[in-house]
């Protein structure tokens, strides 16, 4: 992919020695203001933090959707409702990868159920076509079909949360990338069989993207026909990987990531700024004073169990307060935090009544302001505000699950919906289950096992809530 982050316009420069740092900054950054520079203390920890800043985007495991499209099919419901396929599609799957049994599968599963068989018996898996990269294909027709579910939520939960998808058409025709309503699907590789020689399978390839996805390679040949299975497989692997990476630059996917990245950079800088001279007795930095005010506000509100005024909370964040500050929990509360009951649900949980009460107050500091808000109320306005200011929904603290699971434990229906609608990946069951699995093997010990028990034990309210949210998103979130 072309990367223009390091390009400098103008004629080539002949440098003798190193360019002065100020001149270099002025060349790279127009309107450079020296007064805004902050001197950082260079430490081993800072070096590692800067090097690992973008490592979260470097992947070697990918999940890619695969849809079968019969000659007469045009709608999303038709594509997700297929229970039979054609011999042409079956032969194509043998080119795409190896058919593996999911139960007990040890490789990259891409969110499919390898313990209980809930995602079907088999799937298509590829490893080694490009270096040591792994791809798990979410093949729609291999995921269980639910006759009573018109929208096939189980299938769409996996494929609708992929970023790239292969669409196999028995008969080639134009494909509309907006046929499937999804916030995440941005790149489609459309494969259609064509006849060039008797006894030879050949395939016509089209690449269709949503608005905002930049150009990516490899370029299609002219004509875009492949009759060599190995060449086709290599081309498809390169295309779906590059397409998925390119799609992250589309505004719909890049904006939430950039907000979180900016917050991380601010946090790194705040911790690495060299202390000013004590003799100068400078005033506290504005950001630091805002952090103190936000922490104090939330600690006081946790004591009385009432959320902070929204205007005051918003002003602190807009003035630079860090939403990822840790917050001590009070030892005792004068009143319990308000809980919004799940009025629409009458199905009882399998847990006992004592286990359905609010979780016991932990001695650990809350990871950030979002977790404090979840304890205090079920108002999605606070949640959306914090997401926009880069709050971390998956904390580094192993004593806590991700924010969605934490909200589920407090029955925060509206906040759970807000998280699913605004944070890519949280609606994928893998992102929730992975946190629980990771924590259960960490030093969190008994607490992590309790988290897993609470999450899986709710056969009533939370499970029904999750299903309702996913059903609602079929008509809303995927628009």
Architecture overview:
This protein has 479 residues and is α/β, with parallel strands linked by helices. The protein has two domains: 61-247, Rap/Ran-GAP (Rossmann fold, 3-Layer(aba) Sandwich); 286-475, Serine Threonine Protein Phosphatase 5, Tetratricopeptide repeat (Alpha Horseshoe), CATH 1.25.40. It contains 16 helices and eight strands. It has helices at 21-28, 44-51, 76-80, 87-96, 153-159, 229-247, 251-272, 286-304, 310-318, 369-376, 380-388, 403-409, 413-422, 429-440, 446-457, 461-475; strands spanning 61-69, 98-101, 122-127, 134-139, 164-169, 187-194, 202-209, 225-226. An eight-stranded mixed beta sheet has the order 2-3-4-1-5-6-7-8. It is globular, with a radius of gyration of 26 Å. The model is unreliable at 1-16, 277-284, 333-361, 428-459 and 474-479 (pLDDT under 50).
Feature tags:
single chain, 479 residues, Rossmann fold, Serine Threonine Protein Phosphatase 5, Tetratricopeptide repeat, globular, disordered N terminus
CATH topology of the largest domain: Serine Threonine Protein Phosphatase 5, Tetratricopeptide repeat
Secondary structure category:
alpha/beta
pLDDT < 50 runs, ≥5 residues: 1-16, 277-284, 333-361, 428-459, 474-479
In total, the number of domains comes to 2
Taking all Cα atoms into account, the compactness measure Rg is 26 Å
Cross-sheet strand order for the largest sheet: 2-3-4-1-5-6-7-8
**Oligomeric composition of the shown chains:** single chain
* Strand content range: 5-15%
CATH top level of the largest domain is: Mainly Alpha
Termini Cα gap = 29 Å
CATH architecture of the largest domain: Alpha Horseshoe
Order of helices and strands: HHEHHEEEHEEEEHHHHHHHHHHH
Enumerate how many helices there are, as a single number: 16
What is the count of β-strands?
Answer: 8
Biggest sheet overview: 8 strands, mixed
Give the integer mean of the pLDDT values. 78
Q: Roughly what percent helix?
A: 25-40%
**Shape by Cα distribution:** globular
Domain Rap-GAP: 50-268
Protein name: 8023_t:CDS:1
Keywords: GTPase activation
Organism: Acaulospora morrowiae
């Amino acid at each position: 992919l072309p990367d223009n982050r390091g390009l400098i316009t103008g004629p080539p420069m002949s440098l003798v020695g190193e360019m002065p740092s100020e001149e270099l900054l002025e060349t790279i950054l127009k309107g450079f203001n020296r007064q805004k520079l902050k001197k950082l203390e260079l430490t081993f920890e800072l070096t590692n933090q800067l090097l690992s800043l973008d490592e979260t985007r470097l992947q070697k495991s990918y999940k890619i959707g695969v849809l079968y499209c019969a000659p007469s099919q045009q709608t999303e419901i038709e594509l997700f409702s297929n229970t039979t396929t054609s011999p042409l599609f079956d032969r194509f799957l043998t080119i795409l990868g190896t058919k593996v049994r999911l139960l007990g599968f040890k490789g990259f599963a891409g969110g499919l159920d390898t313990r209980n068989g809930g995602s079907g018996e088999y799937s298509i898996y590829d490893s080694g076509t490009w270096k040591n990269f792994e791809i798990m294909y979410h093949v729609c027709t291999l995921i269980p079909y639910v006759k009573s579910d018109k929208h096939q939520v189980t299938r769409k939960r996996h494929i609708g949360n992929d970023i790239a998808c292969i669409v196999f058409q028995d008969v080639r025709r134009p494909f509309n990338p907006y046929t499937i309503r999804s916030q995440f699907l941005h790149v489609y590789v459309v494969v259609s069989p064509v006849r060039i020689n008797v006894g030879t399978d050949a395939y016509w390839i089209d690449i269709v993207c949503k608005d905002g996805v930049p150009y990516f390679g490899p370029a299609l040949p002219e004509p875009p026909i492949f009759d060599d299975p190995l060449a086709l497989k290599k081309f498809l692997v390169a295309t779906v990987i590059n397409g998925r990476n390119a799609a992250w630059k589309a505004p719909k996917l890049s904006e939430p990531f950039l907000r979180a990245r900016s917050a991380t950079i601010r946090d790194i800088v705040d911790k690495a700024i060299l202390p000013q001279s004590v003799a100068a007795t400078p005033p506290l930095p504005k950001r630091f004073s805002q952090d103190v005010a936000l922490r104090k506000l939330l600690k006081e509100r946790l004591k009385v169990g009432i959320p902070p005024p929204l205007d005051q909370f918003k002003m602190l964040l807009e003035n630079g307060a860090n939403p990822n500050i840790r917050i001590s929990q009070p030892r005792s509360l004068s009143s319990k935090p308000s809980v919004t009951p799940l009025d629409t649900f009458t199905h009882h949980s399998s847990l006992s009544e004592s286990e359905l009460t609010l979780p016991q107050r932990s001695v650990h500091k809350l990871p950030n302001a979002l977790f404090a808000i979840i304890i205090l109320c079920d108002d999605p306005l606070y949640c959306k505000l914090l997401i926009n200011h880069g709050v971390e929904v998956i904390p580094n603290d192993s004593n806590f699950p991700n924010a969605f699971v934490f909200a589920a434990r407090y029955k925060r229906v509206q906040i759970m919906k807000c998280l699913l609608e605004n944070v890519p990946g949280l609606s994928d069951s893998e992102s929730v289950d992975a946190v629980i699995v990771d924590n259960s093997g960490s030093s969190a010990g008994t607490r992590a096992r309790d988290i897993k028990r609470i999450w899986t034990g709710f056969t009533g309210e939370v499970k029904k809530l999750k299903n309702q949210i996913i059903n609602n998103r079929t008509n809303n979130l995927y628009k």
